[in-house]
Amino acid sequence: MNYIGNINRAAATVLSVRDKRRASVAPPPAPEGKRMSKKKRKKTPAETETDILYKSRRRCCLCLGLNDDSTVKLQGHIAHIDNDRSNNDPDNLVYLCINHHAQYDSKTPLTKGLTEGEVKRYRDEMYEKIERAPPGAINRAPTPPP
Ligand SMILES: [Zn+2]
Known about the structure:
Blueprint: H1 3-23, H2 46-56, H3 61-67, E1 76-80, E2 93-97, H4 98-105, H5 116-132
């Protein structure tokens, strides 16, 4: 077992202890405004998943659209735009970095969070840019403020 393997095993142990503790307590009520669907998650078909990852080149469309950051985000998720985790229609899926996924899912009615339409538009804009870009032209870090 290598060093990383040991860390992963230790992390798994910590998680399972936490899970046991949680199991004895009723789950906390969802915070008001939480949009997470109660529908059961359906696993995204592998082919659809591959398609999303390929089309996005693992870029986050919100990093690109909001921060002009088109660098690869290896730590990301395929998010359900309408928060219905059983809706695996490719038009409802988007690759987001961890931060933007968390931000998108935690929107409340009191704040003007990221909207579905906005995310879809940034996503489609990014797909188009990637498709049209010459090789090597889509890996740009955000420009620092002047
Ligand atoms: Zn992002």
